[in-house]
């Protein structure tokens, strides 16, 4: 079945540091890939997505590129801020172009300090 | 409404009691999902409704769990004879057939 593996946290960085959170997946067919974020005390929000190979999703300075050859969707940000402190979830949707259940990774907690 | 609405936001119940959790999806969204978020298990899919199709119940952990969706809109997740391991945050989400999935704030269930 489908699965998502992401790096375990917590990840602690100083403000303005470079962030990478690794995510790899296993799926049949051509899934859509997502990063969701959960800020403290808030619900899950979509951060970015990519629906086909080589697509780059981006939002709020975060980027991730859909790499079919390495089955990866690593999240990056060039300069993190304290306000980026949250839990980040990598996810995939098994059926492209239609509603489908999401399979999530275990989440990576990011703590950014001054 | 503007977003996915869940109620109650918090529920404390005694072991063995039944509970009902409610989800009001975004208007017009034909797909509705329930997930569970717990410390040991991360985010787990429970059940998925898409239009008038039979629901995908493949994630329900036991027959104590059931869900219905009335009139293609509001959904209720019912847990019978609650156990302590049912304690978790239950998340509802909705989407258009080819759209982004939006999540509610969740119901935090504590079984004592």
Describe the structure.
The complex is a heterodimer of chains A (114) and B (112). In chain A, 0% of the residues lie in helices and 50% in strands. By secondary structure, chain A is mostly beta strands. In chain A, strands 2, 5, 6, 10, 11 and 12 form a 6-stranded mixed sheet that branches. Chain A is globular. The termini of chain A are far apart. By secondary structure, chain B is an all-beta fold. In chain B, the strands form 2 sheets. In chain B, strands 2, 4, 5, 8, 9 and 10 form a 6-stranded mixed sheet that branches. Chain B has a 4-stranded antiparallel sheet with strand order 1-3-7-6, with no helix packed on it. The N and C termini of chain B lie far apart (33 Å). The mean pLDDT of chain B is 93. At the A-B interface, strand 6 and strand 11 of A face strand 4, strand 5, strand 8 and strand 9 of B.
N-C termini distance of chain B: 33 Å
Radius of gyration of chain B: 13 Å
Spans of at least 5 consecutive residues with low confidence of chain A:
none
Poorly predicted residue ranges of chain B: none
